[in-house]
Known about the structure:
Elements: E1 2-4, H1 11-24, E2 29-32, E3 35-36, E4 40-41, E5 47-48, H2 50-59, H3 65-68, E6 71-72, H4 79-86, H5 92-105, E7 108-111, E8 120-122, E9 125-126, H6 127-134, E10 138-143, H7 148-161, E11 166-174, H8 180-193, E12 197-202
Parallel strand pairs: 1-10, 2-7, 3-6, 10-11, 11-12
Antiparallel strand pairs: 4-5, 8-9
Amino acid sequence: FITATDTSVGKTTVAAGLVGFLRKQGVDVGVMKPVASGAIECDSGKLISQDAEMLVKFSGSTDPWEWINPYCLATSVTPSLAARIEGVAIHFDRIKSAYDEIAKKHDFVVVEGAGGAMSPVFENLVVVDMIRALDLPALIVSRSALGTINHTLMTDECLRTRQIPVLGFFLNRFPKNPNLAESTNAEIIASVGGLAHLGSIPEMGDL
């Protein structure tokens, strides 16, 4: 499960990169974006999540869209608020059923969250509850800038408190010429939190 310290940190970029890597290794990988907000309307009038679309592109998945992205919302706010605005009730059973179908078909599944680890999905359901209920290990995507030590360690503690295994973290949008904080953040996070630093992904602009 790909989660993050905040919104717009780069979960989709990391998830798509991981999916593409696995596919090149010959792994049959399924993808899922359980809940998406800020979707766009395509020519047919159907709402499409650009995040889910990218995951499908990199995985080559032909699974039904209702499995890959069970809930697709137009309003660009946290999913729980978007669902309230649009009159949509989000049910975890539907998400779990879709995940189970994907897991049956593939050797490996990459699931991307929405916003940060504590972002509300619906009413009292937050992202970490979904990770726990799906019984998946988590990978954290963090910013490279000042402040990320606190945000990453808090996210890690939040996950571990709920007995969610944490595989490690990526620093995303790492600058070409890092300042002192940016050049030492990963080392400090790994040292203080005992977290595996899986890599620093360079700033590549808007993809």
